[in-house]
């Protein structure tokens, strides 16, 4: 059983999982938070304390659920967009886990579809300059 926590220790969780691969992601959120992650099935993750402090952040398609500690602000894990029955875990939050030597796979989150904040339900046609130029 792998133990993990946020920085302040209010949020604690454990993983019943053996990590054999790490991932990075080039989407704008993962790039900004510098995330190094491991993918685990939802049944392998148990939040043991501080669940009430978990704060949800969603953006873009609002399918992925990104959780961070509402006290110290550390990203702990997220329910994945492409595999909603799996979580991506911030492996920097894990205690006493040897990450050296594990392969790191770079995933291409930036190339996943992006939804406009105010999408149009039909194509409005080519833009026409009012001056006709
Ligand atoms: Zn915290």
TrEMBL record:
Q: What is the name of this protein? A: GFA family protein
State the organism named in the record.
Sphingomonas gei
Q: Could you state a single Gene Ontology molecular function term?
A: metal ion binding
The yes or no answer to whether the keyword Metal-binding is present is yes
- InterPro entries xrefs: CENP-V-like, CENP-V/GFA, Mss4-like_sf
CENP-V/GFA domain ranges (all copies): 2-121
The family line of this record is: Belongs to the Gfa family.
Give one Pfam hit by family name: GFA
Q: Does the keyword Metal-binding apply?
A: yes
Keyword annotations for this protein, in alphabetical order, are:
Metal-binding, Zinc
What Gene3D superfamilies is this protein classified in? Answer: 2.170.150.70
